[in-house]
Amino acid sequence: MKTEKEITIYDIASKIGIAPSTVSRALNNNPTISAATRKKITELAEKLGYQHNPFARNLRMQKTHTIGVILHELNSQFITSVLAGIEKVATESKYNLIIGHSGENAKIEVVNANNFFHKRVDGIIASLSFDTDDLNHFKQFQNKNIPVVFFDRVFEKSDAAKVIINNYQAGYDATAHLIAQGCKRIAHITSSLKRNVYSERKNGYKKALEDHKIKYDEKLVIIDGFKEEDAIRSAKRILAMKHLPDGIFITNDFCAAVVIQNLKDAGIRVPQDIAVVGFNNDSIGKVISPKLTTINYPGFEMGQVVARTLVNHLKGIWDMNLTNTVIIKSELIVRESSLKKGKD
After folding, report:
1. How far apart are the first and last CA of the chain?
2. DSSP type of residue 219
3. Cα gap 126→113, rounded to integer Å
4. What are the φ and ψ backbone dihedral angles of 249, each rounded to 5 degrees?
5. What are the tens digits of pLDDT across the range 278-304?
6. Containing domain of residue 274, as a range?
7. How far is it, in rounded angstroms, from Cα 69 to Cα 126?
8. CA-CA distance, 10 to 255, in Å (whole number)?
9. Is residue 1 part of a domain?
10. Of 86, 137, 302, 307, which has fewest CB within 10 angstroms of its CB?
């Protein structure tokens, strides 16, 4: 594939009809250049895909051996384990990492992408925020043949390279397990359905109900965040239901742990009254009582696969565009929180 010509300050200067030195000062926010001129220059620079160059001119065509990683959160055992996997492969391959944290905010995600673009990273690894609506901010990398690999939260219908699990099957397996334990009124606590991970898990939940002749009830689906205050709110919504569910499939282990504690505080027995299945296989599930049944989401392995996919592409070992979707295996781990059968 032919790479686009590198845009320079001379190209910008020529199009506007001013001196290159003026362009340089404007792009560096020099106050000697009027605000109107700075605006005109920066807008044209963005339109043309100009990259600020922090390196010497004789390094212009060399690689930076740097990978940008855009994460939707940092306070997550799953994300931490993914990052550990990425770091292991990157270190072994002599690549440095720059981490950008969107904090579940699409606008910050765009800022991170633009920042990495101007830092001239060799490639991007990204997991999308809750409210990201499109991939337009990643097109600048595509235009420069800078590879981008998405993981976990992706746009499944896009042609971009991605590493995911089968969220639909995981949602199905979690729900089918609760049904096998005798549950017939199963609630589902999840988050933004804009994201593939939650929409697909919900679809799996619905299909499992359908296959077992259990009517889907939208009132049993709670969509909220996964922070402690969100989980408490979700638990209160469960407890306020006229007819309590006898099972809950929750798409986050920390949220599940908080919900279980709130149910127990209200006198509800888990799993005898309400069986619970979580998601991610975070360490919290092994220390709460009862121990949490969950879906194992192998973050470290996912991080390694994501990084190796990108690094091998950068080294010319493999063209990641030939297989643009890699699916990592996940599995149900059964513990006490869902085992209703045999309980008093």
Report:
1. 66
2. G
3. 9
4. -105, 115
5. 999 999 999 999 999 999 999 999 999
6. 167-297+332-338
7. 6
8. 54
9. no
10. 137
| CATH number of the structural domain spanning residue 18 | 1.10.260.40
> Is residue 112 within 8 Å of residue 100, measured between CB atoms?
yes
Q: What is the pTM of this model?
A: 0.78
Say if residue 233 is in the same domain as residue 319. Answer: no
Count Cβ atoms below 10 Å from residue 173 Cβ, excluding itself: 18
Q: Is the pLDDT of residue 4 over 90?
A: no
Contact status, residue 243 vs residue 185, Cβ threshold 8 Å: yes
Residues 112 and 258: their CA atoms lie apart, in Å, by 32
| Token reading at 320 | 């990641």
- CATH classification of the domain holding 195: 3.40.50.2300
Q: How far apart are CA 73 and CA 217, in angstroms?
A: 31
* Cβ pair 201, 156 in contact under 8 A: no
Considering the domain boundaries, does residue 219 fall inside one?
yes
Token pair for 60: 């212009």
- For residue 189, the surrounding DSSP H or E stretch is strand 186-190
From the list 97, 124, 127, the residue with the least C-alpha distance to 113 is 124
286 vs 292: CA distance, rounded Å: 6
Q: Which residues neighbour 342 within 8 Å (Cβ) at sequence distance 6 or greater? A: none
Per-residue pLDDT band for 59 (boundaries 50, 70, 90) equals very low
For residue 293, give the DSSP letter.
B
Q: What is the dihedral of CA 259, 263, 266, 269, to 10 degrees?
A: -160
Show the tokens assigned to 261: 């504690």
